[in-house]
Design goal:
The chain has helices at 27-41, 46-58, 92-95, 135-144, 178-186, 203-213, 221-228; strands at residues 2-5, 21-25, 76-80, 88-90, 98-99, 102-103, 116-123, 132-133, 154-158, 175-176, 191-194, 232-235, 247-252, 263-265, 269-272. By secondary structure, it is of the alpha/beta class.
Length: 273
């Protein structure tokens, strides 16, 4: 069995408009925080906390680095970010408050059965910056691998744009059209993944077309399909080219369960064999 990582790391640098802020706490500082944490966990009243703090200051109730093996505690990280940083799954709630005239599912309401199914990879690497992936191109890609999309397949759209993940070019990517998205949903697909910054084409391309025409159809059309037809998509995937075949593999993409959220980070993988 071979497991292929299809996810980008959550990192505090790169072309993200709002990159995560990650504070790394080393083992020495971790020892101090463990000591303070133990202090706060003892008792639950203000009086007990004041008493414990006085004992801490006096050294009678204190943990420090010297009390740990090798004078080292544990390392940990503090992260401030949004749910759309790194590889993540967008739930229907992200697209709008309703889907198919029912309350839209949040990330914690997504059936987990959707997130473990047969995978299909479609090669759209010929698409250029800012271009739309049409329904005809999706159909041609499916025909090209001699495959028939079946219900619950997890479809992965490979553009190769993950190779730009550390440059500004990453933000100027091709993206799915509403028609292509609707066609895949009509085949019974619940989850579509793509290796670009966003599921629709780059923000600048959409915005430019809207300013020229004032036509709202240019603004996140594939996202807003989710108001009429229920589906999820995964953004910022990676390494789709490392999957050795276009189908005949499994995809696992369970999202983190964040209460009332429209998206959740995911460690997506392909399983071969």
């Amino acid at each position: 069995m071979q497991i292929i990582d299809l996810s980008l790391p959550l990192k505090g640098y790169g072309p993200e408009p709002d990159p995560p802020k990650i504070k790394y706490i080393n083992h020495k500082m971790g020892a101090l925080l463990l000591g303070l944490g133990a202090l706060l966990c003892k008792g639950n009243s203000l009086v007990s906390h004041l008493k414990n703090f006085s004992l801490y200051l006096s050294g009678k109730y204190r943990l420090s680095a010297k009390d740990f093996p090798d004078k080292l505690g544990i390392a940990l990280e503090e992260i401030k970010t949004d749910t759309h940083a790194g590889t993540h799954l967008d739930a229907p709630w992200h697209f709008g408050p309703t889907s198919e005239d029912k309350p839209a599912k949040t990330i914690g309401e997504i059936p987990l059965e959707w997130c473990y199914h047969d995978g299909v990879r479609l090669d759209l690497r010929h698409k250029k910056a800012g271009e739309v992936i049409t329904v005809e191109e999706i159909k041609t890609a499916v025909e090209g691998i001699n495959y028939r999309i079946k219900p619950d397949d997890i479809v992965l759209v490979m553009t190769g744009w993950d190779k730009f993940a550390n440059s500004k070019q990453y933000l100027n990517h091709p993206g799915m059209s509403a028609e292509a998205t609707l066609w895949l949903i009509s085949q019974g697909v619940k989850i579509i993944g793509i290796d670009t910054f966003g599921f629709d084409r780059g923000w600048a391309a959409m915005f430019d077309d809207y300013i020229k025409t004032k036509d709202k159809k240019y603004l996140w059309p594939a996202h807003f399909v989710g108001r009429a037809k229920e589906y999820c998509h995964i953004e910022k995937m990676a390494n789709l080219d490392k999957i050795p075949q276009p189908y005949g593999f499994k995809v696992i993409c369970f999202p983190i369960n964040i209460e009332k959220a429209g998206a959740g980070w995911v460690r997506a993988v392909a399983i071969i064999g």
